[in-house]
Amino acid sequence: MSKNQLYPKLVQTIQRFQPAKASSSSARIVDLQVLSILIQVAAREKEHLAVNFVCTHNSRRSQIAQVWATVAAAWHNNSFVRAYSGGTEVTALHPNVITALIGLGFRVELDKNTPHRHLIYFSDKYPPVACWSKRYDDPDNPSKDFVAVMVCDDAEANCPFLPTAKKRLSIKYTDPKFSDGTDEEASVYQATAREIGSEVFSLFGA
Question: Can you name the CATH fold of 3-203?
Answer without folding.
Answer: Rossmann fold (3.40.50)
